[in-house]
Specification:
Blueprint (H helix, E strand, L loop, with lengths): L10 H16 L17 H4 L1 H4 L5 H9 L6
Length: 72
Amino acid sequence: MKSILIKDTTREERIRIVHQALWGDCGTECEFCSGCDNRGGGRTDQIYQPYIDGLKEIREINEAFRNPVVRG
């Protein structure tokens, strides 16, 4: 498996990684979906935008949502 770290991926690859992970989970695209937002986390595609933009690793984003004290 190829690394998904920011340093090892392009923006386009990170977009593909996020979309494959999200759509693989429920089988639909995020547009017009509020399923994840109903759980209080916000739209999932927006949650992972910092990863796509190369600002935060997926691990950091996931940890912040597992431990609400770390959010922000």
